[in-house]
Amino acid sequence: MNSSPILDIQDVQKAYGTFQALKGVSLSVRQGEFIALVGPSGCGKTTLLKQIAGFEDPSSGAIRIEGQDMAGIPAAHRPTSMVFQRLALFPHMTVAENIGFPLKLRKTPPDEIKARVNEMIALMELKPIYLERFPKALSGGEQQRVALARSMISSPKLLLLDEPLSALDVKLKKVLQAELKRLHRSVGVTFVHVTHDLEEAMMLADRICVMRGGRILQLGEPADIYYRPADPFVAGFIGETNLLPINVKARDAGGITYESAEITDTTTTVPANLVADDVKSGPALMMVRPELFRRLRDGETADCAIDATVSEIFVKGGTVQYRARDTMGRDLAIEIQGTSQLPMQPGEQVRLGWDKKDIWVLKPEDV
Fold this sequence. Notes:
CATH topology of the largest domain: Rossmann fold
Number of strands: 21
Structural class: alpha+beta
Largest sheet: 6 strands, mixed
Helix content: 10-25%
Low-confidence stretches: none
Oligomer: single chain
Number of domains: 2
Strand order of the largest sheet: 6-7-8-3-9-10
Mean pLDDT: 90
Distance between the termini: 40 Å
CATH superfamily of the largest domain: P-loop containing nucleotide triphosphate hydrolases
CATH architecture of the largest domain: 3-Layer(aba) Sandwich
Number of helices: 8
Order of helices and strands: EEEHEEEHHHEHEHEEHHEEEEEEEEEEE
Strand content: 35-45%
Shape: globular
């Protein structure tokens, strides 16, 4: 992947009357990268996508594509293409006409349009017999491929995707997620993808940008976002997690020492590489992801452990998720490999252990 930035966003703000949708967003995207924008509804991710596409102008700040300032350049003249949640295929046009429409607008010769349409059909693994069909004769997944083909036919520098898979059923969504990954790998175009599906973002993106309230909270690779979240909001938004309160007694270059009324720890210390930079003496949270818990049988030990009572079971097929309450009445989430024999039952008292190398200590949100 080329490391040079293709998209450079500097301190972009966007206001709609008195409402500030974007509050100084800065983001640099590398050539050929797959970036996912995630966050709760109203966080500004789709607004940011519209600024990049040129459908709206920022109130202030700058957007540059390949070093060129996009101020005053309309959407039709930007090296971008967008795939919407509602695919916006023209119902009165055939598949071939839909795919070739961007080139027709550019007055491309018909023979060249036909050749490029055939290339797109092959790239999207659509059958040539679909070319003369109308969109209503296609399945949802086939329509999605047509929309992607139309967006790619003009060879954009940036492909912008606004939740294009959100309306599909789970099985079809999985298929098309794999198709998006294949497409990105095969064409090398830079993707900026807005999604509410956190699993989708983790699967597809090279980096994930977590937004909230018009700001970027954290930008990083999926593993960093998941295992080293910037704050409790990111920790809880990117997958389910357990945040156990602790009290940090001291911090130095080597890490922290802490105390807890519930956690049994062999050392009550945590090395510096497992502690966020802004954690100081006082209240803190120890993050343990659900899949990192394991049940401790009699005689078994672990770096850290906690007592709990199982309250609920959710069989998810490949995994089983348990809900439990610790001795302080807090809810815990535990996820283990699926099995035909459930190892824990509601009402059962259990001891849960985890390895210290898997934790992350962070500052509480209100501190």
